[in-house]
């Protein structure tokens, strides 16, 4: 019977703490802390190898928490170390929620690095483990780019929200009256920057304002007079700022706009880099209307080798697009909530891709509208996430079979068959 050595690593930016256990729960050595660098990793390799030989161990299992990127170098180093060739080395990255919930079942010991590393090792020893961590060098460059793009999009969304909150101070009725289709359209931003306050907007004649709107909009407005009328309404209905606050608010708004423009320019450069990296992969995902290179790249980078997943349900589980059932006795909860315990990057790209696909694909649009009508609240969000769950089936089928998209296989009646 094979024997196991379990190692739980709690990794921080400069150090990592290790707790080692054998099959019976005994500790071959006391917990120890090493520097989180190549020398520290090499020390861990030598220590694990020595203990494995001393205790006649054939399997070495090492696990970390996927809380940041601090454990990435350590896992990559271990995967290429002599442990992989001398022993049956298995590496895991636990979802932090697993460890946090598991610690509640242990004797209260507080929150320290040794306690965390013990919880990881003990959870590792109990079994029922997630999929093994396997290095995927082929996907890493693309993954770094798509995850960076996700970070940029989140940052730009926060910056826009901050901008809108300060825009309310300058012109409180601007967002409610909606003189422009988007507050961030070119003409809208030009208006916000051009007029120092709502008083200046109110004092500008209708003719001058009409000329300004036409010039900034390059005569693309179907009814420029209606835009001007709404701008005048904004000037009448908005609160007035104290004089000492006006220059401050304008400075904040101008700075936010600079940040937003910088984000947009950076995203454009990253998108170009993503398209270039995507050329290294053969995929049929781009045959789906609405799935452009960026969304295809995001899906491919996070999924990796599709053979890692036994079914489309396993892929949905990995993405966190599942709804746990809540039932006890005769009670059955009427509502179930999205698990959100999987890969947040893959879930993001699936939802964004679903939003794009349903705009370009009549079949997915029909499905979205059906779910939108069925929802009792949060109609758009619920319908969109359910559309993303259906998209998982299609993505799994296309990647598994390397087939081109065929609309006739994706009718509402055939959705359940896709990816099966």
General shape: elongated
Any idea what the radius of gyration is?
A: 28 Å
Largest sheet: 5 strands, mixed
The number of distinct structural domains comes to 3
Q: Which percent range describes the beta-strand content?
A: 5-15%
Q: Strand pairing plus helix content: what structural class? A: alpha/beta
Strand order within the widest sheet?
A: 3-2-1-4-5
How confident is the prediction overall: mean pLDDT? 89
Structural write-up:
- The chain has 420 residues and is α/β, with parallel strands linked by helices.
- It has three domains: 4-126, ATPase, nucleotide binding domain (Nucleotidyltransferase, domain 5); 143-273; 285-417, no CATH class.
- Helices cover 55% and strands 9% of the residues.
- The protein has 17 helices and seven strands.
- It has helices spanning 38-54, 72-79, 82-86, 96-103, 113-126, 140-170, 174-177, 186-194, 198-203, 206-216, 224-237, 246-278, 293-303, 312-319, 344-360, 362-374, 379-401; strands at 4-11, 15-22, 32-35, 59-65, 88-94, 327-328, 331-332.
- It has a five-stranded mixed β-sheet. Strands 6-7 form a two-stranded antiparallel sheet.
- A hairpin with a 2-residue loop joins strand 6 and strand 7.
- The model is unreliable at 326-334 and 415-420 (pLDDT under 50).
Question: What descriptive keywords fit this protein?
Answer:
420 residues; alpha/beta; Nucleotidyltransferase, domain 5; 3 domains; five-stranded mixed beta sheet; two-stranded antiparallel ribbon; 55% helix; disordered C terminus
Write a compact overview of the structure shown:
This protein has 420 residues and is an alpha/beta fold. The protein has helices spanning 38-54, 72-79, 82-86, 96-103, 113-126, 140-170, 174-177, 186-194, 198-203, 206-216, 224-237, 246-278, 293-303, 312-319, 344-360, 362-374, 379-401, and strands at 4-11, 15-22, 32-35, 59-65, 88-94, 327-328, 331-332.
């Amino acid at each position: 019977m094979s024997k196991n050595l379990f190692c739980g690593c709690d990794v921080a930016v400069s150090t990592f703490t290790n707790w080692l256990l054998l099959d019976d729960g005994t500790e071959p050595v006391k917990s120890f802390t090493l520097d989180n660098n190549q020398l520290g990793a090499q020390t861990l390799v030598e220590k694990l190898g020595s203990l494995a030989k001393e205790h006649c161990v054939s399997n070495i299992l090492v696990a970390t928490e996927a809380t940041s990127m601090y454990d990435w170098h350590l896992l990559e180093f271990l995967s290429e170390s002599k442990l992989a060739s001398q022993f049956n080395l298995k590496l895991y990255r636990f979802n932090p929620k697993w460890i946090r919930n598991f610690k509640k079942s242990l004797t209260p010991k507080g929150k320290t690095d040794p306690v965390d590393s013990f919880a990881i090792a003990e959870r590792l020893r109990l079994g029922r483990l997630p999929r093994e961590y396997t290095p995927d060098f082929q996907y890493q460059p693309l993954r770094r780019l798509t995850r960076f793009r996700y970070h940029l999009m989140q940052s730009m969304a926060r910056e826009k929200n901050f901008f809108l909150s300060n825009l309310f101070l300058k012109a409180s009725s601007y967002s409610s009256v909606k003189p422009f289709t988007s507050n961030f359209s070119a003409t809208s931003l030009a208006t916000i920057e051009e007029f120092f306050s709502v008083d200046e907007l109110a004092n500008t004649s209708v003719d001058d304002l009409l000329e300004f709107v036409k010039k900034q909009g390059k005569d693309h407005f179907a009814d420029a007079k209606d835009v001007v009328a709404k701008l005048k309404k904004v000037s009448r209905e908005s609160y007035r700022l104290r004089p000492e606050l006006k220059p401050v608010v304008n400075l904040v708004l101008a700075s936010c706009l600079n940040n937003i423009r910088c984000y947009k320019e950076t995203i454009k450069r990253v998108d170009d880099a993503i398209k270039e990296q995507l050329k290294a992969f053969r995929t049929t995902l781009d045959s789906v209307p609405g799935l452009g290179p960026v969304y295809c790249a995001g899906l491919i980078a996070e999924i990796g080798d599709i053979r890692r997943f036994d079914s489309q349900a396993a892929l949905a589980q990995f993405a966190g697009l599942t709804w746990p059932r809540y039932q006890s006795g005769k009670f059955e909860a009427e509502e179930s909530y999205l698990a959100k315990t999987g890969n947040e990057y893959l879930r993001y790209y699936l939802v964004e891709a679903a939003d794009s696909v349903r705009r370009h694909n009549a079949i997915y649009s029909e499905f979205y509208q059906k779910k939108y009508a069925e929802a009792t609240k949060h109609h758009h969000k619920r319908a969109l996430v359910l559309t993303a769950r259906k998209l998982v089936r299609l993505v799994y089928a296309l990647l598994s079979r390397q087939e081109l998209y065929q609309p006739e296989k994706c009718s509402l009646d055939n959705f359940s068959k896709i990816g099966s």
